[in-house]
From TrEMBL:
Region (Disordered): 545-688
Taxonomic source organism: Anser brachyrhynchus (Pink-footed goose)
Subcellular localization, as worded in the UniProt entry: Membrane
InterPro entries: SLC26A/SulP_dom (IPR011547), SLC26A/SulP_fam (IPR001902), STAS_dom (IPR002645), STAS_dom_sf (IPR036513)
Name of the featured protein: Solute carrier family 26 member 11
Matching Gene3D superfamilies: STAS domain
Keywords: Membrane, Transmembrane, Transmembrane helix
Membrane topology label: Multi-pass membrane protein
Residue stretches spanning the membrane: 35-55, 67-89, 109-134, 226-250, 330-348, 368-388, 395-416, 428-454
Superkingdom as given in the UniProt entry: Eukaryota
Cellular compartments per GO CC: apical plasma membrane; basolateral plasma membrane; endoplasmic reticulum; Golgi apparatus; lysosomal membrane; nucleoplasm
Main location class: membrane
Amino acid composition bias (Basic residues), ranges on this chain: 586-596
């Protein structure tokens, strides 16, 4: 019988995998009463912020107010067990609410189904480790989207501050209708909304300028600091509470000049499956039709949710000196949305504002989310009757105050200084989002992709030299770039007054594909017809920089090269090789025409090249160090001077032509140069 191995290593691996999938197991054994106190304070503070924001963001999403609260507690509970960032809080946000309004058509059934499908996509991405797909949404696209969203969301709430009804959803129609109906403004809503905006702006400015109180300060000073800081942090809740009291007072007097939120169903949402069909007066909308109606939203919503959450988590992890696991964040987001869809939630993501509040209150673990979620549940159970008196103008002021800082005016100036081409996807996304949000995101991603593909198809090429052309690609070569490389080399080489030699500097080429290898083979044959030689310099062999290796000698002066790592290099006993560029700027010479056997086949690695090499005994003796450059050239099989080649008359293979390297600090050295041989696929990093 086979002896069974010890089970301890297997158990250890299983526990390690479990801790990786359940991060709560990493910090729960070390939980302390001090952490509990700070988590309670942070959870209550964030809860006072999320309740009014949830009611307001439901308005942005085009859903009844209770759906904002339904979306605010499941994510808090799930992230406590699966999240890797202690500061992040999940819930409804302005960006996600705007996307839901575009793809859910103001219908709760579509919104809940979108939550379920988006969560499934996020779960699949996390399990398949597809987090790298988020990297294809560039920073200019995100900045253009968030800046445009801040404007569109703000204008969408102006109608509530003015007390106007029946305003269309499209941005340009909104602006037109509000300007046309400005005379219908309700004074009560306008005065209250502007007062709430001014109060929120003042409290925000007060908090940013509030100096921290030291422990050595008197008790009264520290108490006053705590009061001011609490009021500034919970400013949304205070403003909504004050506005609700004003509306309630008007209601008691029998007159109501304000537009109120209205009644909200009391109690917790029922736990049930997401709606996979929708009943309509004429029949039923099947699942396939609902998915078709949401269209590209099934890709935009999960991706934008992940981008927002991972970006926030990385920012606060860097600020507070801890690390996150992006793939685990994908799983946490996916589980939060899938489970949230069973409680009538619309898609949630990380909130930057609430995460900042969480971090500033000193949260220690994700357990603070449990307190926040509990407060939301208490609000649904006992406070929904009080939400009736909250004016819509106050909620609009909360939204505008939250989204205005999202507009980044400095990004335009920054991109103008750094790279002006990045302004193209930024402006395309920014402008298209005013038409429709989904068009703006898709257009921005497409433009960014086109610019990325263009940079691959047209890599930077530096061509220098006169008698000898030195071609230096600035990046790796892929199949879209080979035609451009051939055109540049052929146009420069064939336009020269006499046939020249070409050196392809491969120092910066770390990857190559088969199409490029085939194109280089065709280029070599085309250049040979015109008597032009081609050499490769600085090749990287299987990911490492190739080093010169000595050639093995057979009987006779010629040796057989086994690959591009057999470099043309004089014997070390011949003194300083003439192929190295001198510091005085003299021109140096490198033999770049090789003896070639007839090809053994179409495979590049099967070809054998014969390179004329000096005898091992050449240059030995007491006077070897004083050998003249002419002797070194003779040992290399090159003529003493570099004679131009006659057009249409290539030299014989037995008489290699001398090639002059361009002088200067940017010229490559002789080490790492191989003449007249196409690199094989793995030698240039292919297949990686």
């Amino acid at each position: 019988m086979w002896a069974r191995g010890p089970p301890e290593p297997r158990r250890r691996c299983w526990l390690r995998a479990l801790r990786r999938r359940l991060p709560v197991l990493g910090w729960l054994p070390r939980y302390s009463p001090g952490w509990l106190q700070l988590d309670l304070i942070a959870g209550v503070t964030v809860g006072l912020t999320v309740v009014p924001q949830a009611l307001a963001y439901a308005e942005v999403a085009g859903l009844p107010p209770q759906y904002g609260l339904y979306s605010s507690f499941v994510g808090c509970f799930v992230y406590c067990f699966l999240g890797t960032a202690k500061d992040v809080t999940l819930g409804p946000t302005a960006i996600m609410s705007l996307l839901v309004s575009s793809y859910a058509f103001h219908d709760p059934a579509y919104a809940v189904l979108l939550t379920f499908l988006a969560g499934c996509i996020q779960l699949a991405m996390g399990l398949l480790h597809l987090g790298f797909l988020l990297d294809f949404i560039s920073c200019p696209v995100i900045k253009g989207f968030t800046s445009a969203a801040s404007i569109t969301i703000s204008f969408n709430q102006v109608k509530n501050i003015l007390g106007l009804h029946g305003i269309p959803r499209q941005f340009f129609l909104q602006v037109y209708e509000m300007l046309r109906r400005i005379g219908e403004t309700r004074p009560g809503d306008a005065i209250l909304g502007l007062a709430c905006l001014a109060t929120l702006a003042g409290l925000r400015a007060m908090k940013s300028r509030l100096p921290p109180a030291a422990r050595t300060e008197p008790l009264a000073t520290r108490a006053s600091y705590l009061i001011v800081w609490t009021c500034a942090t919970a400013r949304n809740a205070l403003v909504v509470l004050f506005a609700g009291l004003v509306a309630y007072c008007f209601q008691l007097r029998g007159s109501q000049p304000l537009t109120l939120t209205g009644s909200i169903p009391r109690g917790l949402p029922p736990c049930r499956l997401p709606p996979f069909s929708k009943a309509v007066p004429n029949g039923t909308v099947p699942f396939g039709t609902m998915v078709e109606d949401m269209g590209v939203g099934l890709a935009v919503v999960p991706l934008m949710g992940l981008v927002e959450t991972v970006a926030i988590a990385k920012a606060f992890a860097s600020q507070n000196d801890y690390r996150i696991d992006p793939n685990q964040e994908l799983l946490a987001m996916g589980f939060a949305n899938v489970l949230g869809s069973f409680f009538s939630s619309y898609p949630v993501t990380g909130s930057f504002g609430r995460t900042a509040v969480n971090a500033q209150t000193g949260v220690c673990t994700p357990a603070g989310g449990l307190v926040t979620g509990a407060l939301v549940l208490l609000s649904l159970a006992y406070l929904t009757s009080l939400f009736y008196y909250i004016p819509k103008a106050a909620l609009a002021a909360v939204i505008i105050s939250a989204v205005v800082p999202m507009f980044d005016a400095g990004i335009f100036r920054t991109l103008w200084r750094v790279k002006r081409l990045d302004l193209v996807p930024l402006c395309v996304t920014f402008l298209f989002c005013f038409w429709e949000v989904q068009y703006g995101i898709v257009a921005g991603v497409l433009v960014s992709g086109v610019l990325l593909l263009y940079s691959i198809a047209r890599p930077p090429l530096k061509v220098s030299g006169q008698g000898t052309l030195l071609v230096q690609p600035g990046s790796s070569l892929h199949f879209p770039a080979i035609e451009h490389l051939r055109d540049v080399i052929c146009s420069r080489a064939l336009s020269a007054p006499s046939p020249c030699s070409i050196i392809l500097d491969c120092h910066r080429i770390s990857s190559i594909d088969y199409t490029v290898v085939a194109g280089l083979a065709e280029l070599l044959q085309e250049l040979r017809k015109h008597g032009i030689s081609l050499a490769f310099c600085g090749l990287q062999v299987r990911g490492g920089h190739a080093q010169p290796q000595p050639s093995r000698h057979r009987a006779g002066p010629a040796c057989q090269g086994k690959g591009l790592h057999r470099w043309a290099q004089p014997s070390p006993h011949q003194g300083e090789p003439s192929g190295r560029p001198s510091q005085q700027g003299h021109r140096s010479h490198l033999p770049c025409k090789a003896r070639m056997r007839p090809p053994l086949g179409s495979t590049f690695s099967s070809r054998r090249w014969r390179l004329q090499h000096p005898s091992p005994a050449a240059g030995r003796g007491a006077g070897a160090k004083a050998a003249a450059p002419a002797q070194a050239h003779a040992a290399l099989g090159c003529p003493e001077s570099s004679e131009p080649l006659a057009e249409g008359n290539p030299p014989a293979l037995g008489s290699p032509a001398a090639v002059s390297l361009p002088s200067g600090p940017g010229s490559p050295s002789l080490a790492g140069c191989g003449p007249g041989r196409i690199p094989t696929f793995p030698q240039l990093g292919g297949g990686r």
